[in-house]
Amino acid sequence: MIDDIDSLRTPAYRKKLAQCIHCGLCLQACPTYAIFGVEMDSPRGRIVLMKAASEGRIAPDEFKEAFTRHILLCLACRACETACPSGVQYGALIEEARIVVERNRRLGWAERFLRWLGVQQLMARPALLKFTARLMWLYEKVGVQGLVRRLNFLPPALKAMEGILPPIRLSFTPFARLLPARGETRGRVLFFAGCIQEGFLSPVNAATIRVLQRNGYEVLAPPNQTCCGAAHLHLGDKAGAQQLARRNIDAFRAAGDCVAIIANAGGCGVSLKEYTHLLADDAQYAAAARQFSAQVQDVNEFLAANLRLPPRGRLPARAVYSDSCHLRHGQKVARQPRDLLKLVPGLELVELAAPDRCCGSAGVYNIAQVETANAVLDAKMADIAACGADLIVTSNTGCYMQLVAGVRRANLKARVLHVVEVLDASYANGQQ
Ligand code: SF4
Ligand code: SF4
After folding, report:
1. Nearest atom (ligand 2) to Cα of 27
2. Is the pLDDT of residue 117 over 90?
3. How far apart, in whole angstroms, are the C-alpha atoms of residue 207 and residue 226?
4. Is the pTM here over 0.85, yes or no?
């Protein structure tokens, strides 16, 4: 018996499945197909599986094994969506399939505990996350991290989590404080700080705010904002994601009017833009969700359209831009970060052979599917090494942490920065 499979049997879901004409043009874009070379680990194969489940042609034991395995191995990177000539909404299809898979899975106690701790507690509670960030800062500073890595005794999931910890610098966002624009004010933007981003990559948030201020915007990070809910959805917890979405909508509504709501992580941004769909059936919040999502812009998108101050400070480096899948395929923002980087004096921007190929971070994929995530990461690092880059630029929290781990894993001499950190450094060098 397969529980709660009805969401795969709705006319709307079947209509989305029917858009696939099985042409196979998406196969070469798919990182898991590249690794396994198996049809069932390609977008087309997974769509065939989803169709079989939708039409009741999958036996419970097949569902628990083959269906679950192939669905969970998908990175949900949505590269197939960009490649598809038929407009298949693969992201929506895989999201629903995952929810059903997760409802039917029996997890071990360790996985249940880690999910409860990481996703239910830490990500949804900014104060607790900041406390953890301080502990991790100490863990890195006093040398315990080096010892833990040398002794190599952690169980696989914890080892994977520890392995993606970036060097932590604490520079938390001043929530609820209106930060003034520099020069003539062009308007107010509301800033979405993210959960992991604010905890472990707070300097990126600080740089985002400074760059917005330098370009004439006053910035307010509304208090009571919380995690975007992407990880909850990734793990099939739609109700949890909806609850966080309502909290964010309330928090930003209370902050008043703005020119835009700015997100600086591709994964968070696409979730915020998709609150419209997440809360479409919520009579109380559907209209507010539409209004909220319409205001969200990725920081690259916003700056490319509104840059008042071209960066003047030299930043000599050979740089590659590694696309965030959710920014490129989910939000269709690929040109803007490149345009911004090309403005920086001294920065030589070179293209990767496969800039749009996932780095293996993919939400919590690098913790849940360690081996495959590492295979995807190794391909990305080989591409970066071949370019001879000494600077890797990205625009998403998960990618940033995954690429820092990749640099260590591949023994490269390269820094990882967010686009806004590059702009911020150039402004600082140019004394702007
Ligand atoms: S989302 Fe990514 S990993 Fe999943 S089928 Fe599409 S291209 Fe492959
Ligand atoms: S998802 Fe799109 S590209 Fe892939 S097989 Fe179906 S129609 Fe073709």
Report:
1. 4
2. no
3. 20
4. yes
